[in-house]
Amino acid sequence: DAGVIQSPRHEVTEMGQEVTLRCKPISGHNSLFWYRQTMMRGLELLIYFNNNVPIDDSGMPEDRFSAKMPNASFSTLKIQPSEPRDSAVYFCASSSSNRGSDTQYFGPGTRLTVL
Amino acid sequence: AQTVTQSQPEMSVQEAETVTLSCTYDTSESNYYLFWYKQPPSRQMILVIRQEAYKQQNATENRFSVNFQKAAKSFSLKISDSQLGDTAMYFCAFMKQPPNDYKLSFGAGTTVTVRA
Asked: Cα(A52)–Cα(A50) distance, rounded to whole angstroms?
C-alpha cells in the first residue's frame, strides 16, 4: 500500500501569498492529522479530522490557517496570507480507528519557506 | 495536557554498539499508547516501535526494544548493534487510548549519531 502522500515537498513563497498544502491519507484510514515542526516549538498538532469532520482545530495558529477534508482521500491546509514565521515543515499523518490500530503514519512533509 | 520529556538532546554511539534513549511522561490516564518515531535527515517520520500501556511485556522490533516502566512513567528505547542508518532524531510520543483522544504528544527529541 502507498503511504501518506503530500505535495508539494518544497514550497518557497513570498510574504502575503496564499499557500496550499495537500495530503492524501492511506487508503482506509479514517483519521487525518496536520502537524507543524519548527526548531523552536518542535512538533505541534494543528488539526485533526475523523471521518472527514474536523474534531479539534485548537492548534491552528490563527485565522490565516484553514484546513479542509472534502472526502476521505484528500485534505488541504491553506495559509492566507502567509508570513515568514509560518516557515516550517508541515506533516500530514493518518490512522485507522476501525482496525484496532491507532498508530499514526506520517507523510514525507512539506518544507515551507516564506520570504 | 500530557508532558513528554526526553532529557538527552544528543547521543553518540559507535557502530555495532548499544545505545539507550530515555523518555519520561506525565499522565493521570491508566490506558494509553507510547511510541518511538525516527526522523532521519530526509525528515520523514518513521514509526520505530509502539507499546500499549496495558501490556506488561516490553515491545521489540528487531534491533529496537523498549523498557516500559508504568509506575515510574518511563519508556526508554534501546538500539542494539547500531548501524550507520540509525543516525537520526528520535522522538518519544504519548497518546491516550482512543476514542478518548487521538492526539500525539511528542518529546523534544534526541539526536543519535552512529560513528563508523
From this structure: 5
- What residues contact B74, with CB distance under 8 A and at least 6 apart? B22, B23, B24, B67, B68
Q: The cell 507523510 sits on which residue?
A: A107
Chain A residue numbers touching B33 (CB-CB < 8 A): 102-103
Contacts of A100 (CB under 8 A, 6+ apart): none
**Which residues have a Cβ under 8 Å from the Cβ of A63 and sit 6 or more positions away?**
none
Segment A66-86, tens digit of pLDDT:
999 999 999 999 999 999 999
Contacts of A19 (CB under 8 A, 6+ apart): A11, A13, A78, A79, A80, A82, A86, A112, A114
pLDDT, one tens digit per residue, over B40-68 is 998 889 999 999 998 889 999 999 999 99
Preferred mutation among B61, B102, B103 to probe A, highest tally of A CBs within 10 A: B102
In the sheet with A74-79, reading across from the earlier edge strand, the strands are A5-7, A19-24, A74-79, A65-71
Grid cell locating B40: 532521519
